[in-house]
Amino acid sequence: MKARYIDLNYGKQEADNFIDKEYKNGFIYIGNIENTLKVYEENRNKYRTIEDYYDKIIESFNIDPD
Fold first, then answer.
1. d(Cα 34, Cα 62) in Å, to the nearest integer?
2. Tens of pLDDT along 14-23?
3. Which pTM value belongs to this model?
4. pLDDT tens track for 37-46
5. What sign has the CA pseudo-torsion 8, 9, 11, 12?
6. From CA 47, how far away is CA 25, in angstroms rounded?
7. Cβ distance 40 to 47 under 8 Å?
8. From residue 62, how far is each of 6, 8, 17, 29, 36 by CA, in Å?
9. Distance of alpha carbon 48 from the chain centroid
10. Which pLDDT score, from 0 to 100, does residue 64 have?
11. How many domains does the chain have?
12. Domain residues for 51?
């Protein structure tokens, strides 16, 4: 979620830098989670709360992170 915050408040380049750093530190699923949260934001009419979207977030861990 921090990457989304950075993207929305400081821009894509700063968010990409953060994601790259986290990936290099071993958080290999950060890109998957970032993409999944973007889908959530675009579909707030379908998913009223983040809890409604948890299953999709968990599924993002089943996708190859590379």
1. 14
2. 999 999 999 9
3. 0.74
4. 999 999 999 9
5. negative
6. 31
7. yes
8. 25, 26, 24, 9, 12
9. 17
10. 81
11. 1
12. 2-62
